[in-house]
C-alpha cells in the first residue's frame, strides 16, 4: 500500500476537524492529574464523551471503579485500543517554563510524566476516527476501547485479562510516547510484579512476662517491637536482596513503598499495623518467581522477630510481552503515510523559555532530532539492544503486555518533545518534560500523529480483514497454537482476583478546607 485508502482519508479528515476539541479534552485530563486507582474525574470524562459518540459503555469493569470498556459496532473483525490517564505522585507541575507545582496544592501532588493524558487521547482519537470511517463507508466490525487505570503500578490490564475482557479479539494496538517515531519490534517489555506485605501486632501484651508488674498491661513495661519494626526489618533485609540481584544494566529493578506505618501511636504502645509494598521487574518470569520467594521469606522472618503475624496481598503480576512483527509492519507503514510530528514556532518558543530559565542558551530549534523524524523498526531495535545482554529478550515494564497474549498486538511510538542538551551528559530536570506535556502546542503534534496512525491502521484492518491473516499466523506460531497453545502463557492473576482499589493509595481529598493532596501542605515557615 503506497497511498491512503478512501476510508483512511475519511478517518484523517475527521481527525483534522475534531482535533481542537480533542486537544481541549487532553488538557482537561492533564489538569485532573489523578494518581493510580483514583482517576475518578478522568474516567467519568472519558465515559461521558464515548457515550455521546455512540459507544456502548460499561463502567467499572473488572471491579475497578475507574476502568471501563466502550464498544462500537458488531461482528468481526474485533479491533481494540486503550486509554491510560493516571498521573504520578510528587510530579505536580503547571504548564509554565519554570518549576511550579499546581497552585493551592502540595508540591508533592501528582502530575503527568509520560504523559498519560496524551497517551489516552491519542488512542481515543484513533478509535473515534475509525468509527467515523465505519459509519460513512458502511464498514463492518467491532471497536473496543478500554479505560485502563493505574498503569504506573501495572494495575488494570492484568485484571482485565484475568477476567476475560481481552478474549475474542483479532488485533490490538498499544501506544506510548517515546523519544522515537517507530514501533516496537522483537524486544518487548518484561514482567512487573508487586505485592504488599502487611504486619500486625495482634497481642503485644504477651511480649514479656507481666506477672511481676505492679499492674497488668502497664504503659511503662518493655514495649513489644510491633508492626513498624517489622516493616523496617523487611526493608533492611530486602536491601541485601538488591545486592544479590542480576545487574541493573538490563533495567531490572526492585523498589519499595511504605504504605502504612506508625499511625502516630501515643505513649509506649507499639504500632499494631504496618504495610510495605514491593515492586520488581525483570526480563523473565523465572526471575520474578525467585524474587517473590525471597520477599516472602523476608516477611516471615521480620514478623517472627517482632512478635507480629504477616500476610501478603498481591497488587499485580504481569506477563512478558509477545512480539507480532506482522502487525507492527502494518502500523509502521501507516506511520510512514501519516509522517512524523512537526512543531511550530509556539512550541519552539516555549522550549526556548525553559532553556532560558535553566541558564541554557536558547536554541533556534530546541527539540532533539529523533522526535522529529521516523526511525525504522530495525534501527530502533538495534539502538535499544545496545545496552542489553545478547540473551535478554525483554526489558523495562508496562502492562500492555497483557494484550499481547490474547490477540496480535502492535505497540506504536511517536516522539514526544524532548529538549536538546547544551552539552553531552546534560540532563534536563523532570519538571521540564512535565511542563511540555501540558502545553497543547508542544504535545499535540505527538498526540495527533499517533491518533492518525492508529486511525489509519484500524481502518486498513477493517477494510480488508484478510490483512490480519499474517499477524494471526505469527500469533499462532509464537504461542504454539494460539490462546491455550503449548507456548501460550495464561494470565498470572486468578479470575476471582479483587483489584486493590481499597488500599491507601495517594489521592486528592476534600475537607472543609477544600481540595487537598493527601500529604499536608508544608507550613509557610518550614524549609523546602
Q: Helices and strands: which structural class?
A: alpha/beta
Strand order of the largest sheet: 1-2-4-3-5-12-6
The 3D shape can be described as globular
Tell me roughly what share of residues is in helical segments: 25-40%
Mean pLDDT: 94
In the CATH hierarchy, the third-tier topology of the largest domain is known as: Aminopeptidase
CATH superfamily (homologous) name of the largest domain: Zn peptidases
Q: How many helical stretches?
A: 13
CATH class category of the largest domain: Alpha Beta
Order of helices and strands: HHEEEHEHEEEHEEHEHHHEHEHHHEE
Number of domains: 2
How much is the radius of gyration in Å? 25 Å
Euclidean distance between termini CA atoms: 58 Å
- Low-pLDDT stretches are none
Descriptors:
Alpha-Beta Plaits; globular; 5-stranded mixed β-sheet; single chain; 14 strands; 528 residues; Aminopeptidase; 2 domains; alpha/beta; 7-stranded mixed β-sheet
